[in-house]
Amino acid sequence: MTKIVVVTSGKGGVGKTTTSASFATGLALRGHKTVVIDFDVGLRNLDLIMGCERRVVYDFVNVINGEASLNQALIKDKHAEHLYVLAASQTRNKEALTQDGVERVLQELAGMAFEFIVCDSPAGIETGALMAMHFADEALIVTNPEVSSVRDSDRILGMLGSKTMRAIQGIEPIKEHLLITRYNPTRVQDGHMLSLADIQDILRIPLIGVIPESEDVLQASNQGVPAVLLDKSDVAEAYKDVVERFLGREMPLRFTEATKQGLLQRVFGRR
Amino acid sequence: MNARSTPLSFEIKNANLPLVSVLVKSLDLALLAADLQTRFGDSPAFFDNDPSLIDIQTSEGHFDVNGLLQLLRRYRLNPVALKAGNPGHEAAATLAGLFITGEARLLPAAATDPVREVIREVEVVREVAVAGQGALLIDKPLRSGQQVYARGRDLVVLAMVNPGAEVMADGHIHVYAPLRGKAIAGAKGDTGARIFATSLEAELLSIAGVYRTSDAPLPKDVAGKPAHVWLADDKLLMQAL
Fold first, then answer.
1. CA of A151, closest CA in chain B: separation in Å?
2. How does pLDDT run across A235-267, given as a tens digit for each residue?
3. Which of A230, A212, A199 is nearest to A51 (CA)?
4. pLDDT band, residue B210 (cuts 50/70/90)
5. Residue B26: helix, strand or coil by DSSP?
6. Considering CB atoms only, which of B124, B125, B144 is closest to A154?
7. Cβ(A16)–Cβ(A8) under 8 Å?
8. What is the spatial distance between Cα B89 and Cα A159, in angstroms, rounded to a whole number?
9. pLDDT digits over A166-190, tens only?
């Protein structure tokens, strides 16, 4: 049974596309046929993060409008064998996305035996975001430990519970997962950043993982490689944990405790 | 020429149009206007230009068809037909452009009127409607941007009310969870309305229009604790429960 997972947040710049890329890659590396779709029509960047921007010929809107088939538009990822990418259109705007069109494409993908369809939502609560979440079975709500991100995530949770197909039809609700990104345990300890407990007190949904703040993310996106593929990176390990938990394995939370730095580390190491 | 061949320029199909039936029990337009204002004044967009059937259930009084049509249109009802019965009324209605029908079938009245109102005004929050005019019961958390209004009754919320959410009631408001959003009780002016919360952390508290924002910090003995708020001499008073 195909599962549609939306990666959403409300707030912009918190790590949705970074997460979509790494999460989808992680699932594919575990052997599951996965497609990741960019719903940010007009401001597409999933293809850049995935490193396939030069291979985009046809996009999501082309497929919705019948100007190209899915087979022509889907890009086979070079890093993970079971992963495919469906890029957004750069030249159209969000009106090009219609609910019927999106539904048809998702059904066609399900018919192609994809196990997971990861929908990379744009920021905001307008058409793109609503389309990305409308048909979802599960949701990753990406949140930074910062008050406006938490407020926006709360808003998005309200919409997941009322404006999506599962909510409207009154069937089993979307399974919600909280993913905290850009977490810096040292700053939390100093009282300069919201803690896990603070965030969960407001959002009250199950936590699927914590991704630490790291320069690796910037490095990865500039290279066009999903962060999960960076060897020896805390971010990569954290995303792998998220995939494991999503697939049902219990994993202890890592990268949430501030490490005490010895004198040598402070002199020679990074902060 | 074969008379049975399908013409290419048109097709005839069966269609059904749901109508809102307005049962007019008095032809006194002033009385009708006042009652419509009471019932729908707070939600003028309750109807959405719904095609309507006028069913006049009285024979007393003069039928001012244009006045009635104007009144109904003001509330975004779109009268298209009159139920047959009174030849005088039928003649007036026909002149005004309505058609006369004897065949409209009333659907069984759904007992969900108050629930429908809440849904119209706000995001869909799944309510558990309590029988009779008891309190409106909400058992899912209210998230930022969501609003609930318990019209004409009390409100009971069993899950948290997040910052950015708004709970309103004409009667009392009970939140058996952290109340962090805005709470507006006695919305129509009932000064006896109270607000109860198991953890009082509201952004805004209001009873019958007298309000206080979180700009003025809550007293230490009630902030974040089980407490209730009431109005006395135009002042909001609070006490731990």
1. 7
2. 999 999 999 999 999 999 999 988 776 677 667
3. A230
4. very high
5. coil
6. B144
7. yes
8. 48
9. 999 999 999 999 999 999 999 999 9
Nearest CA in chain A to B164: A151
Token look-up 């209001």 returns B206
Chain B touched by A155 (CB under 8 Å)? yes
Supply the ipTM of this predicted assembly: 0.79
Helical spans, DSSP H, in A30-98: 46-50, 60-64, 70-73
Q: How far B48 CA lies from chain A's nearest CA (Å)? A: 20
pLDDT level of residue B119 (50, 70, 90 thresholds): very low
**Which chain A residues contact residue B201 at CB under 8 A?**
none
- Can you tell me the distance from the alpha carbon of A123 to that of A131, in angstroms, rounded to the nearest whole number? 12
Distance CA A196, CA A246 (A): 19
pLDDT at position B60 is: 83
Q: Which residues of A touch B162 (CB under 8 A)?
A: 154, 202
Mean pLDDT along residues B77-86: 89
Amino acid at site B44: P
With b meaning 16 or more CB within 10 Å and e meaning fewer, what string describes A207-238?
Answer: bbbbbbbbebbeebbeebbbbbbbeebbbbbb
DSSP B193-233: --EEEEEE--SEEEETTEEEETTSPPPTTTBTSSEEEEEET
DSSP state of A114: -
